[in-house]
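Worked example

This section walks through a single chain of length 207. The input is the sequence exactly as stored; nothing has been trimmed or padded.
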Amino acid sequence: MSGKQPKKATKRPIRQAKQQRSKATVDAIVQAAAQILSESGWSALNTNAVATRAGVSIGSLYEYFPDKHAILTVIVDEHLAAGEAKLAEGMRAMFGIKSMEEVVEAVVSGFVHLHQEDPRLHRVLSSEVPLSFEQQRRVAGLRSQIVGGVAVALSKHGCDNEIKATLLVDTADALTHKWFIDKAGLPASADIMAEEVSKMLKGYLSA
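Given that input, the structure is written out below as tokens.
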């Protein structure tokens, strides 16, 4: 997911925000950092810039976060948690799918929705920031769960082949990522792109 070397340990916030006012401060700091990452990338992120954007003093920021890596940990964890929630929702929907073609459409649609949400932040998190080993394991775990769920869904419709499930997931992920995150797509709508990718993958599975 990231071209950077993983960090050996994940820095966590110094203390948890329990009171409503403290939680609001932490939320403002995390949101400000996410905005900076989205707009300017990892190299532009520093605690002074975050404090200024969040409207808090640098001292207040350091009450909760020792450095920018600790803030990043929260952002990445929230991003992964959102992905895990979408995965759980998608896996539940798989149980009601009635054909192999619908499996393909569901997979492509799932990745479209995933990559459409804040694509600039997604790009930075996937290519610039130094993920910890723990976070990289979560990313790998997400992919494994998706492949496993798709393999089970395909097997119910006469396609009992984990390699095909893997290629289906990886191709849908890569193409939608390139379209939304790398901005390498043709000037067409997301619906048209999803339809074309689905056609291609349906042809592969039925070959």
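What to look for: The chain has two domains: 12-66, 69-206.
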